[in-house]
Amino acid sequence: MITRLRRLSKSLLRPVAEVMAKNGITGNSLTLTGLVLSLTFPAFIYFKFYVEAIIIVVVASLFDAFDGEVARIRKEAGKKGSFLDSVSDRIEDLSYVTGLFFLGLPPLLLILLAGTSVIISYVRAKAESLGVALEGKGIVERGERLLFVVIIVVLYLLFLPATLPVLYIFVILSCATVVQRILLGVKAIH
Q1: Number of folded domains in the chain?
Q2: Which residues, 6+ apart, have CB-to-CB distance to 7 below 8 Å?
């Protein structure tokens, strides 16, 4: 769902990305900056700087939204940047789940969440290596997973009793996405 919104938001992103590109900012520098920011998320959660942690997720997500667009504008988009972006995204996902661990949420659920997050991305990458596009397919893509992280931290701050049920929903939807993408991939591969 958020992938579809990202496509619609390109008209808003493009002018800002053009300014970034004209000022010497590269797509890879945005990717790496977003990665470094995301790695601070667990520390902010650990030290109970929850609002700052939410800001980290939002800002790192903005860097992720701009990196590819800036690379395309600078005519530097390619396999190396795509690889760096994909690997950085996986590290970021694990960093966010690690941060949730510091909220005191059930470790077993968080381990399952970390695993499904990696598998969701792996299934997409493997399918794409075989010529099957799975972007935009699945209930909980990366954008939705990041949104869930923010919602969980906000609920932890404002309405603690709702935190665990939302985590359960997140885990269930993530597991469903793994199954959904595997089935779509198997069906599409000849």
Answers
A1: 1
A2: none
Q: How many CA atoms lie within 13 A of 184 on its CB side?
A: 21
As annotated, the active-site residues are 89
What gap in Å lies between CA 90 and CA 111, rounded to an integer? 14
The whole domain housing 176 covers: 2-188
Q: Which residue has the tokens 């000022």?
A: 23
Using the structure block, give the residue that is written with the tokens 């099957």: 132
Task: Quickly tell me which residue has 């909980």 as its tokens.
Answer: 140
* Torsional class of 75: left (φ above 0), alpha (ψ -120 to 50), beta (otherwise): left
CATH code for the domain of 16 = 1.20.120.1760
* CA gap 52, 37 in Å, rounded: 11
| pLDDT tens, position by position, 145-171 | 999 999 999 999 999 999 999 999 999
Cα angle 63-67-69, degrees, rounded to a multiple of 5: 125
Q: Which residues of the chain have pLDDT under 70?
A: 1-8
